[in-house]
Every structure is written in C-alpha cells, then in structure tokens.
Input
Amino acid sequence: MTKILMLSAAGALLLGLAACDPYNPADRAVGGAAIGAGAGAATGAAIGGGPGAAVGAGVGAGLGATTGVLTTPMPPPPPSPGY
Output
C-alpha cells in the first residue's frame, strides 16, 4: 500500500511542476526545492537511515532551490509588431 501512495504522490508532484512558468525564478525555486528534497531524502535514507533522510531532504531542498533560481533563463523577446 505504501508503494501505491508513494507513486501517487510522485505523480501529483510531477503534474504540479508541469504547471510552472520556466521564466519565473520563484516557480523554478519551488520546483528545484521539491526535486532536491526528494532526491536528498532518498539518498540520505539509503546512506544514513531515518536521520540521514531528514538531513538529505533539507540539504537537497536548499541546493535545488538555489540551482533553480540561478538557472532561470531570460524570457524570449516579444514578437515584432509587423505581424
């Protein structure tokens, strides 16, 4: 049962991230934090058990949010008025 719950939570997270604006630094920070927290928790749990998962989630969220903000692309220029 927990496997089904985890898969449905992962699916909901991916759908929520799909609605993010790629040119908004705040959206990219939230998406990066969510992905980083998940990856950090999984890695921390594999290495250090329960406390390692908590530390990994915190560190991953921080690094993911920072990376999301720093890698935000510039929006495309508006179309020319001739069209």
